[in-house]
Amino acid sequence: MNSDHSQQEPRPKQQWNRLLYAGLFLSMLVLVISACGGSSLAPMAQSGSTQNAGQATTGAKGNGDPSPPEGVQTFGTLSRDHTELPVTYPQTPPVGGAHSPVWQNCGFYDKPVGNVHGVHSMEHGAVWITYQPDLPADQVDILRKQAQQSYVLVSPYPGLPSPVVASAWSNQLKLDSASDPRLDQFVRYFRQGPQTPEPGAPCTGGTSATE
After folding, report:
1. In this structure, are strands 127-131 and 171-175 parallel, antiparallel, or unpaired?
2. Is the pLDDT of residue 84 over 90?
3. Percent of the chain clearing pLDDT 90 (strictly above)
4. How would you classify the pairing of strands 73-74 and 127-131?
5. CA–CA distance, 45 with 53 (Å, rounded to integer)
6. Spatial contact of 149 and 108, defined as CB atoms under 8 Å apart
7. DSSP class of residue 152?
């Protein structure tokens, strides 16, 4: 009897050792996953939030550039009231202020569009590129390509103070040429950029009327 009891006695100790080893193994496995897998999961979540932010805000950042180009004028807080009445703007072209309830559909136009509609498009995060009606054809072609992007509105504008003027809500850049690299930088930064009062609002489904 004593001999049998002494043979069975180590079994609980062996079971305890197995449990101990299993616990140590699981602990080490968790540490390895945290060190290797955890760091790869973080960028995935960050990437997803950035994509959503781009859709909801383009552009809370500069959409593709860390900073706006040199020469941009900023005009501060502007009215966002809707009105059916004519509006006189202090800038040419306007960069914000009271505007029509209907926005201008983004894209390329070979005739002028209404200020009150263009301003509404900028409220939605569009960049409005205006050009002098006598701008050379090769320069107009450059601007036409810019309008292939979403949230870019391009139209001629009589009486423009420079050959090309790029505008976003409360921001404006005057340019001597459509080839100026600052135009690309302006579009990348301000298209659905941090200045947008209504990020994610559409630039389609409005009006395509010209003047």
Report:
1. unpaired
2. yes
3. 69
4. unpaired
5. 12
6. no
7. E
Q: What is the pLDDT of residue 66?
A: 81
Q: How much is the pLDDT for 186?
A: 98
Confidence of residue 21 (pLDDT cuts 50, 70, 90): low
Q: Are 176 and 152 contained in the same domain? A: yes
Which tokens belong to 93?
A: 């072209």
For the ranges 47-61, 110-124, 139-153, 192-206, which has the lowest average pLDDT? 47-61
Number of domains forming the structure of the chain: 2
- C-alpha 102/C-alpha 121 separation (Å) is 9
**Distance (Å, rounded) from C-alpha 71 to C-alpha 175?**
9
> For residue 154, what are the β-bridge partners?
108, 129
Residues 130 and 160 in one domain: yes
Q: Using CA atoms, how far apart are residues 152 and 175, in angstroms rounded to an integer?
A: 17
Residue 36: predicted pLDDT: 46
The set of long-range contacts for 177-180, using a CB threshold of 8 Å and a minimum separation of 24, is 177/139, 178/131, 178/135, 178/139, 178/140, 178/142, 178/143, 179/139, 179/142
Phi/psi zone of residue 152: left (φ > 0), alpha (ψ -120 to 50 degrees), beta? beta
Q: What is the pTM of this model?
A: 0.71
Q: Name residue 152's beta-bridge partners.
A: 127
Residues 77 and 171 in one domain: yes
Tokens of 85: 């009445």
Same domain membership, residue 104 and residue 30: no
